[in-house]
Amino acid sequence: MIKYMIQGGTPLKGSVNISGAKNAAVAILPATLLVDGVCHLDNVPDISDVRLLLNILSDMGAKIRRLSPNSLEIDCTRVRNIIAPIELVRRFRASYYLIGAELGRFGSAKVALPGGCNFSDRPIDQHLKAFRAMGAEVELQNGYVIANGHLTGGHIFPDMVSVGATINTVIAAALAEGTTIIENCAKEPHVVDLANFLNSMGARISGAGTDTIKVRGVRSLHGGSYTIIPDQIEAGTYMAAAAATGGDVVIRNIIPRHLECITAKLREMGVKITEFDDSLRVQRTVPLRPTKVKTLPYPGFPTDMQPLLCVCMALAKGGSLITEGIYDTRFRYTAELNRMGANIQVDTKIAVINGVDTLHGCSVKAFDLRAGAAMVVAGLVAGDTTVVEDVHYVERGYEDIVGKLQGLGATIKRIETPDGQKVQHVG
Length: 427
Ligand code: EPU
What we know:
The chain has about 425 residues and is α+β, with helices and mostly antiparallel strands. It folds into two domains: about 200 residues, UDP-n-acetylglucosamine1-carboxyvinyl-transferase, Chain (Alpha-beta prism), CATH 3.65.10.10; about 210 residues, Enolpyruvate transferase domain (UDP-n-acetylglucosamine1-carboxyvinyl-transferase, Chain, Alpha-beta prism). About 30% of the residues lie in helices and about 25% in strands. The chain is globular, with a radius of gyration of 21 Å. Uridine-diphosphate-2(N-acetylglucosaminyl) butyric acid binds next to α1, α5, α6 and α12.
């Protein structure tokens, strides 16, 4: 058990460096399975999802050399084992990218159905539909996805915009015979990053970041170097924390364009945001104004920022509204915020938030990664002590959140019980 103890009530001040994007890293690492040669990766976030993935790849036979906390070399040339260890795969969501990568490389995959943040029913039918459209036979057996077949290009029409299905299809198609066209694609920055990574290793992918991606299959990919983009949601989290605490924070090592939807929403709420080439200054000196938001695929407002914006709305002068447009449910965390004095009512996909003057500390749980981050931000606002439990969820996606917040003047302590879950390290 890991928990954070936070003594809130102090506006955050200073600057914070944003790490590499989790959702790009967890796609790029499985995609290294396609590469014949050594991939040198920089700006890899040191988070538990990445460490799990490295353990899985290493168990499958990949040679991994850590050059620094955020740089590593990975060589999957000699990987022969397609069975990823079930106990590791089931612990995180993005293990589904191993299916596309194994199918693409070996024409065969056996991967346990993914685990991770289950704040909603999260099927992977669109991933499997795409693999079938490319000629694979796919079955579900005893909790495993078993897929086999020589992949050939296809024209794929997903039923909804899915980040995971878009990325997985691109991964599978990179070495397929012929051309694959994927319609209705997700346009998130990490989709583009994955395509850029594969292209830098010799793939021929065009259109990433638009509705239609074309992948011309190549015979092999070669090694090379690649730097992962900064994490949009980690940056947004510190923006929300600065706004909620009435702080003044410079968010460094970011791509401001990826944050525009978040910047626009916080500006509507009265937050002053100044943009520079690769940083933003976030200042809040006036009370937060209420607003409305609907979460949408990129470039819309990201669902992953929804719990964090909700903390800001909980402190605004008046009533705000959130409509969750991606998942069936993602509001379980609001009960925890209400325990801290927020006034939020939820009806399935809609939350009505009546602003309160402040929040008070108590013991709350992190139900998932972003819900946990929202509890941390709420704890930074509350004038007394907040204990956030189950923060192993938070550490799935935030590198050194405690150290970064301490650097901004927060009083926050990480407490790990002796027999608790130890974070795993890959050498
Ligand atoms: N969906 C299906 N079938 C599928 C795939 C998706 O019905 O085969 C539905 C989902 O249930 C959801 C919607 O389509 O209602 C969109 O889901 P999507 O596939 O885009 O989500 P994902 O790929 O599983 C990624 C991120 C999530 C983020 C979503 C939406 C990764 C590893 N995860 O999930 O990130 O919420 O996109 O942007 O990239 C997080 O980082 O905290 C996180 C949950």
